[in-house]
Design brief:
single chain; 34% strand; six-stranded mixed sheet; globular; alpha+beta
Length: 185
């Protein structure tokens, strides 16, 4: 009797597992991962973006799946912003392929992956203009923004205003962190 676990799944098997799971599951290169749960910071990020965008684009919660067709990653970003009509994946009608902004609220367990491999996947989305990383450690938002075909990184801290060129977006870092308890570790 073998005790080894299966390490590679098809996308159809992933979709079946996702339907039967109470957890959000991500898919990357045949591997299925459980996604991290939401916090008050996750909810605050969506609310602040909704207000800042004032109907020009639509922010969605982590219930919306994003598929990176170029790499095969299917994931549930903490917030996804779509400007215009939603473009579903040709192989997964429940996943979109055209976010303009993605937001990840970091945690101790996900920060390295979010800022590393996951960001590399995200950069393959042709419609993506920016990725925002909301720190769990301090009042800090890191913006990775595509301008003139290149990716640029900026950080905004408490007392500063996050500004994006496209789509036009502005909000105060302090507004995002109002009422949020940070993980100082």
């Amino acid at each position: 009797m073998s005790t080894s676990k299966r390490l590679h799944y098809t996308y159809a098997e992933y979709l079946s597992a996702l339907r039967d799971s109470a957890l959000k599951l991500e898919f990357d290169d045949g591997v299925i991962y459980a996604a991290a749960g939401g916090t008050a910071a996750h909810a605050a990020a969506g609310a602040v973006l909704r207000q800042a965008l004032m109907g020009r684009c639509t922010p969605f919660s982590s219930d919306l799946k994003v598929r990176v067709e170029a790499t095969g990653l299917s994931t549930f970003p903490d917030v996804s912003v779509v400007c215009g009509a939603i473009a579903p994946s040709p192989i997964d009608a429940m996943a979109i392929t055209n976010p303009s902004i993605l937001v990840e609220v970091t945690s101790r367990s996900t920060e390295d992956y979010d800022r590393g491999d996951k960001l590399s996947h995200y950069k393959q989305l042709p419609t993506l203009r920016a990725v925002l990383f909301v720190s769990h450690r301090e009042a800090r938002v890191t913006v990775i923004e595509r301008r003139e075909g290149r990716w640029h990184e900026r950080e905004f801290r408490g007392g500063e205003r996050v500004e994006l060129a496209e789509p036009a977006l502005q909000f105060e870092v302090d507004e995002l962190y109002r009422g949020i308890t940070l993980d100082a570790a």
